[in-house]
């Protein structure tokens, strides 16, 4: 890739490029180095990705456990509210019609 770029730039300048074996060797070394570093970086990215995935999975499990733990308490509170609501409805029913709220003009 780098070799092609160097050859194209030399052709666009109108000059001829004398390719020296040392130049070709250096380009091959750089290409090899870049490939090696890219592979190493991909390995690191994969490791970090797995670690993040593991942490997120752990947090999801922890959150699910807390939700399940609190679900019983929430249901109990709803039951208490429901019984209080029924009791209030019964008391209001015993009061009879709400004539005291109506205004006679």
Structure report:
The protein is an all-alpha fold. Helices cover 82% and strands 0% of the residues. The protein has two helices and no strands. It has helices at residues 2-12, 21-95. The longest helix has 75 residues, at 21-95.
Task: For the structure shown, list the relevant keywords.
single chain, 82% helix
Roughly what fraction of the amino acids lie in strands? Answer: under 5%
Helix content: over 70%
| Helix and strand pattern | HH
Structural class: mainly alpha
Shape: rod-shaped
Parts with pLDDT < 50 across at least 5 consecutive residues: none
How large, in whole angstroms, is the Cα Rg?
A: 39 Å
Q: Whole-number average pLDDT?
A: 82
**What's the total helix number?**
2
- Report the end-to-end length measured between terminal Cα atoms: 96 Å
- For the secondary structure, the number of strands is 0
Major sheet size, sense and barrel closure: none
